[in-house]
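Hey, I was hoping to borrow your eyes for a little while. I've dropped the whole record in just underneath, so have a look:

——
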Amino acid sequence: MSPSRTILGLLIVIMGAYFVFILLELGVVVIAIGAYFVFTGVRTPSHRQISGQVNQVIYNSLKERGIERIKTGQLRTTEERLISVLDSLRDILGSQNEMPELGYDALFFHFRSEADATAKLSEIRDRGLQGSLVQNKNEWQIKVDL
């Protein structure tokens, strides 16, 4: 829901109701425009809904790729451990600029600055997961052990 768009639409509808008394055709057109703004304002997904959908897509993708790599021997962990780590990190997965990567025995998050990476690493450790900070060329990575 977009509150600013909804409020703008309500104001236009009220202005249209005023115009109905002055000129009926103009009032109806203004009310229709206001109704459009109200409708689109109510139907617009919020930032929280959008980020939740992004997190879900990334979670499902990492889970599918991880299970596939476990079956082919390219990822050295169990399905249960992979799913438990991904469940713990579900809300962090979509907050990255880049898609997290699955390594041979770890999950890697990418960051542009050391401060961002350090802050996120402490949050990951607070969740009871093992992780370390790695500098790779011009970026910082967090390696979360699987």
